[in-house]
Specification:
The chain has 279 residues and is mostly helical. The protein has helices at 4-36, 39-42, 57-64, 68-99, 105-117, 124-133, 140-165, 168-176, 181-192, 194-210, 213-218, 228-231, 243-275; strands at 236-237, 240-241. It has a two-stranded antiparallel ribbon with strand order 1-2. The protein is globular, with a radius of gyration of 23 Å.
Length: 279
């Protein structure tokens, strides 16, 4: 039976956790409530905790805005391509680092960690110059490659730790039974990597889905190649910002990431924990 003293000791931790959650959720709450408020209430000097009246006009404005379906398609295409490409490349690289012994393995991982720590915003100008000189500006494949490079180091680090945590004896036993090394990996190790693959996929998805700077900087002339984060800025004009439509569009923009996280949260938690155990 729990005594009152340990409960009192845990009280500051619970209070700190409650305050942290409230601070993190408050912007989300404000975004959602503003999306359902009429314009007259949004501009009011006395904001309400909940809207006095609810409206869907802002969502209609967002959905009917120019390029909504097109930019949605662009974001899905770029995000899915970058995540799949990062998974394929990182899976081979992490397996080579975790299972094989070769010269330069430690140096390779050091470079991966350096790339992971590098601020990608500082590389916008070099990436722009390279894209301009190679004729790759205003193209979705350019964004795909950029997002692939942004998510690849993290994916390699996590999958490497996850593969290292799986006993190598399982693969060796399959090879004794006649499997090749590739077949043993495909039938034994790969199914056990599902949580790690989902964890890294979610990270890559959120990174590519929310990225704004490169999408705004590399897509200049061809407006049809822009993505949803850039589309959100279309609700700002010379007369000001349509906050209701902006918040409604932001709510629609955040829904896919929320749904994906809720579906994968169990695998994501186990994936990050397993990937940090060994290696």
């Amino acid at each position: 039976m729990t005594t009152p003293r340990p409960r009192l000791r845990r009280l500051p931790l619970h209070a700190a956790a409650t305050v942290t959650i409230a601070l993190c959720l408050f912007p989300v709450y404000w975004m959602i409530t503003t999306a359902f408020e009429p314009n007259r209430d949004i501009q009011s000097d006395t904001p309400q905790f909940l809207p006095r009246t609810w409206t869907l006009d802002h969502f209609r404005t967002a959905v009917d805005a120019d390029g909504f379906a097109l930019f949605w398609r662009n974001s899905i295409l770029v995000t899915a391509s970058a995540v799949l490409l990062a998974l394929v490349v990182a899976l081979g690289a992490s397996f080579a680092v975790a299972r094989m012994r070769w010269d330069g393995r430690r140096q390779f991982m050091l470079l991966v960690f350096v790339a992971q720590m590098a601020p990608w915003e500082a590389l916008i100008i070099p990436v722009y110059i390279i894209s301009r000189d190679t004729g790759m500006l205003d193209r979705l494949p350019t964004l795909t490659l950029v997002y692939f490079m942004m998510t690849l180091p993290f994916t390699i680090v996590v999958l490497r730790g996850f593969i290292a945590a799986i006993p190598q004896e399982l693969e060796e036993a399959a090879q004794v039974d006649g499997c090749t090394r590739m077949r043993a990996f495909r039938h034994i190790t790969f199914p056990l990597l599902a949580p790690g693959l989902m964890a890294t996929s979610l990270f890559g998805y959120v990174t590519a889905w929310n990225e704004f700077a490169y999408a705004n900087f590399l897509i200049i002339k061809h407006q049809d190649s822009r993505t949803l984060p850039v589309w959100l800025s279309s609700f700002q004009n010379v007369f000001g910002t349509d906050w209701g439509a902006t918040m409604a569009a932001s709510t629609l923009f955040a829904l896919p990431a929320l749904v994906v996280f809720l579906l994968l949260q169990r695998h994501v938690t186990s994936g990050f924990a397993a990937g940090a155990v060994k290696g």
